[in-house]
Design a protein that fits this description.
Helices cover about 25% and strands about 20% of the residues. It is of the alpha/beta class. It folds into two domains: about 90 residues, Alpha-Beta Plaits; about 140 residues, Rossmann fold (3-Layer(aba) Sandwich). The strands form four sheets. The chain has a five-stranded mixed sheet. A two-stranded antiparallel ribbon has the order 1-4. A two-stranded antiparallel ribbon has the order 2-3. Helix 5 packs parallel to helix 6 and helix 6 crosses helix 7.
Length: about 270
């Protein structure tokens, strides 16, 4: 068996915090019996995205004999994990599932929402408009690469300040869409690009809409999405909306598949 780069987890240093689990886009790490463990060599690409997430320094990259990284096996593994989190293990439905390890907020979930809903009367007790959120988690660093809520989805990718600035976010933008949020200023935009490209490649995404704030740093999210679309090799319609600091819609643009990639190429050359 040939040698290659692959992660090594020092069980003595690992405290089972689980921060490395969402950092691995391939789902190669799970917290088992209170310790982070490599599930299978074939799921680890050796790039080490998980290294910087470990506060104990328990993860390193080593050269050792290991089975080759298998992208198709990763896709099957992620799809299987996502289905189990959302629907449970259908083959062992009679047996109770063990409690999940790591953060409960990372578990993928789908919510059923009515197609049409009207806010209650303003004088009703605890009156509020209904939520349009249909998936969880929503943060780009936490979402699985393949999940049931991505199949046939109209994808909404929003800078995390947008829902706070735009008052009618749920009705105007979120209704009928699968949501992902992120901050291009505080997070790793390169990781966003890779993660979104994997989501676009591995799922049947019907359209992509990006919402960003008017501040310059927020445009990094738009560029990451455009590059992810190009990297995915798919023809997917793209819409981009810029939101002002006062909550107004400043600008909206749309493009179709190849034209979006051509537009990006033209901007890169200019």
């Amino acid at each position: 068996m040939p040698k290659r780069k692959i992660i090594r987890i020092d069980e003595e240093k690992c405290d089972g915090c689980g921060l490395c689990v969402p950092a691995c886009a391939e789902g190669a790490i799970q917290v088992i019996d209170g310790k982070a463990r490599l599930v299978s060599d074939v799921y680890c690409d050796g790039f080490g995205d998980c290294l910087g997430e470990c506060p104990q320094g328990a993860i390193t990259i080593v050269d050792r004999e290991a089975e080759a990284f298998d992208e198709q096996a990763v896709k099957r593994h992620l799809a299987d994990q996502a289905e189990k989190r959302v629907f449970g293990d259908r083959h062992t439905a009679a047996e109770p599932e063990p409690p999940p390890s790591g953060c409960p907020g990372m578990l993928a979930r789908m919510f059923q929402r009515p197609l049409a809903a009207h806010p209650p009367a303003s004088d009703a007790p605890d009156a509020h408009a209904p939520s349009r959120l249909v998936n969880w988690p929503i943060q780009l660093n936490l979402v699985p690469v393949i999940a049931p809520y991505f199949q046939g989805a109209r994808l909404l990718i929003a800078a995390d300040c947008v829902p706070c600035a735009f008052a009618d976010f749920h009705e105007r933008f979120l209704a009928g869409k699968t949501l992902l949020i992120g901050c291009p200023k505080l997070d790793n935009v390169g990781h966003y690009r890779e993660k979104m490209a994997q989501i676009l490649r591995g799922n049947d995404i019907q359209s992509v809409e990006v919402l960003h704030m008017e501040v310059p740093c927020c445009f990094g999210l738009v560029q990451a999405v455009r590059l992810a679309l190009r990297d995915s090799g798919k023809e997917i319609p793209l819409a981009i909306t810029r939101i002002g600091l006062r909550g107004e819609i400043c600008e909206t643009s749309t493009s179709q598949g190849a034209s979006a990639q051509a537009h990006l190429g033209a901007k890169e050359r200019s």
